[in-house]
Each structure stands twice: as structure tokens, then as C-alpha cells.
Write a structure and sequence with these properties.
disordered N terminus, binds zinc ion, globular, 10 helices, 5-stranded mixed sheet, 14 strands
């Protein structure tokens, strides 16, 4: 293994050991030495804080998580996140001095400088310089990016969207967010607000959304709306895991509610497909955990409502990386393995 001051021991030459005895050898491919440092990923909200420590190959070494109160001041949650990072580093046996980068996923509109421009999921976070605030607490620079954008980057790098250039990724969970990859590049928009699919208007005069508008897609198709709709059948304590189990068990009321939500999402995605003509729609987030029935209902709505040539070009597939795709994207961003 070749190490030199120019690389700080972080870069190794692939296949170098096998070639060490040769007098002359062609230059090998350079890659990051996975043991030479660590990266940190924060996943903040809407209801959970999660901190992951990984090596430079993005193999997770330790994770710590805790509840996040979306109504608490941002400073309280940021302190908690920094404490979890300390615990995760200790559990991984990694010194903070070995951390070469950190990134955080937040469900909101994020400015170029890591400031939260708008975040309806976490009240009290709007205007908070989340990157600077976390960096000050842990002593390492922290990049901040929208959660759906990071999940999309992870799916592009090693998931369901490898090799695709025109991709719409949608995260359907407590909120609904999308990431738009156009011509191989993440499209963030003029203010970082591209892909706010959850706030597309689907019901004139509908319920007031936490964003301040009315009748947004989130008010009919995100997890809280489904749990509210099922309260008369399954009571006030139903959680998303139980909801997914009821879908799998064929519970008629739950399937009906989830089907209606999938249709509403698919209808909104159909318009996105007509506008952007993607080759792939990747569906992730907690509701994607309902599996093929949910995906099928989304797909049927896309096929029904999108322009026919857009329908012909597009495939609607589940995410391959599960609910923690955003964490994998944040780790890749922290290791500078992806660009945003
Ligand atoms: Zn809204």
C-alpha cells in the first residue's frame, strides 16, 4: 500500500500489493482507503434523530438514534444530535480526529450554505444554519442536504437507479418529498425547493397543511393522513408498522385507505412524468414498505394520468436501499463520493 504526504494516507492504489515485486508497474486505480478515516451521517426528523458512523467504504460501524420532538426548539435537537454522535463514535471506537467529513439529511428546503430555508416538518428550524450549528457542536464541517435528495443520490450510486440519468425519487413517509435527477444531475431549483411534491395541490379547499396551504398531497397521502383515516377502524394508537402489517394481512379498510393514498401520489407523479419524462420513478420511504400492492396502485395511476409517451418511457420501481437510503446518501456526501 502506497502512502504519501500528498494523500494523508487516505488514498490507496488498487491491486498495489500484488504488483509490489514488479520492477515496473502500470499505475493502478486510486480509491479511498476504507480504514484511513471515518464519516458521520445525521438523519434529522421528522420524529427521529439518527447518527451513523461509517468507514470510507460506507460500511456502517455504529449507529445511535433517539426521538426528536418536532415542536422542540432546533437548538435542543441539535444538542441531542451532537450527543448521539459522540456516543456513536465511542461505540465505533473512532476518534473525532479521524472523521474526514459529515453530512446531515433534513426534510426541508435547504439553502446552498446549509441553512434551513423552509421546513414544515420541524417547526422552529426555519432560518437555522443547521450545518454551522452541528459543525460548532462536533468540531467537523457538516454538509446539509434535503433528505429525499440524499436518498436519491444513494439509489443512484448503489441502489435502484444505478446508471439512470433521468430519475424522479419520491419519499412517501410522514411527509412526501421528491428528488429530481435530470440529465444525470440533481436539480435543486433556484432556492433548493425543487421536488416539494408533498405540497402540490390535490384538493381545492382541502385540509390545512402544516406548510400553511390547503389541500396539499401530504394532507391526503402521507402517513399521518392514513393513520387519521384509519382511527375509526383501528383506534388512535395505530403506528406505521402496524399499518404495513394490516396491508400485508389483507385488512380491507387499511388496503382501501392505502390504495387511495397510492392513487393520489401516482396522480401527482403522473404530472411530474408528463413534465419531465423520466426513465425511472423510484418509490421509497416508509409507505414503500407496503410492497407491491402499494407500488402497483402508484404505477396504475401514473399510467392512467400521464401523457402516453411519458408512460411508455417510465418504469415505477421500489427503492432498493430501504428506509435508510438518506443515511447512505449522507455518508456518501460526507465521504465526497457523490456530488449535490
Ligand atoms: Zn403543504
Amino acid at each position: 500500500v502506497r502512502r504519501g504526504p500528498a494523500t494523508n494516507g487516505v488514498v490507496v492504489e488498487e491491486g498495489a500489493q500484488a504488483q509490489q515485486t514488479a520492477r515496473w508497474r502500470p499505475p493502478g486505480r486510486l480509491r479511498l482507503d476504507p480504514s484511513a478515516g471515518a464519516v458521520l451521517a445525521f438523519s434529522l426528523g421528522p420524529e427521529q434523530l439518527r447518527v451513523s458512523v461509517a468507514n470510507l467504504d460506507m460500511r456502517v460501524l455504529a449507529e445511535r438514534s433517539g426521538a426528536l420532538d418536532p415542536d422542540a426548539p432546533a437548538a435542543v435537537s441539535l444538542d441531542r444530535a451532537a450527543a448521539l454522535a459522540e456516543q456513536a463514535l465511542a461505540a465505533a471506537g473512532v476518534d473525532i480526529g479521524a472523521v474526514i467529513g459529515a453530512a446531515a439529511a433534513i426534510p426541508g428546503v435547504i439553502g446552498r450554505d446549509g441553512t434551513v430555508v423552509a421546513c414544515s416538518a420541524l417547526r422552529g428550524w426555519t432560518g437555522v444554519a443547521a450545518g454551522d450549528e452541528l459543525a460548532r457542536r462536533i468540531g467537523v464541517p457538516v454538509d446539509v442536504e434535503n433528505d429525499a435528495n440524499l436518498a436519491a443520490l444513494a439509489e443512484l450510486r448503489r441502489g435502484a437507479a444505478v446508471g439512470a440519468a433521468d430519475v424522479v425519487y419520491v419519499k412517501a413517509s410522514t411527509g412526501i418529498g421528491a428528488a429530481l435527477v435530470l440529465g444525470g444531475r440533481l436539480h435543486r431549483g433556484a432556492a433548493g425547493a425543487a421536488g416539494e411534491l408533498g405540497h402540490v395541490q390535490v384538493r381545492a379547499g382541502g385540509a390545512v397543511c402544516r406548510c400553511g396551504s390547503r389541500g396539499c398531497l401530504e394532507t391526503v397521502a402521507a402517513v399521518p393522513a392514513l393513520l387519521d383515516a384509519l382511527e375509526p377502524l383501528h383506534g388512535p394508537n395505530l403506528g406505521v408498522d402496524e399499518l404495513l402489517a394490516l396491508v400485508a394481512a389483507g385488512d380491507p379498510g387499511t388496503r382501501r385507505v392505502v390504495k387511495d393514498a397510492a392513487r393520489a401520489l401516482g396522480r401527482a407523479l403522473a404530472d411530474v412524468c408528463t413534465h419531465l419524462n423520466p426513465a425511472l420513478v423510484v418509490v421509497g420511504g416508509e409507505l414503500a414498505g407496503a410492497g407491491e400492492p402499494y407500488l402497483r396502485w402508484v404505477r396504475l395511476a401514473v399510467e392512467h394520468w400521464a401523457q402516453p409517451s411519458a408512460v411508455e418511457a417510465v418504469e415505477v420501481v421500489p427503492g432498493a436501499l430501504g428506509p435508510h437510503a438518506e443515511t447512505l446518501g449522507a455518508l456518501a456526501l460526507a465521504a465526497r463520493a457523490v456530488q449535490v
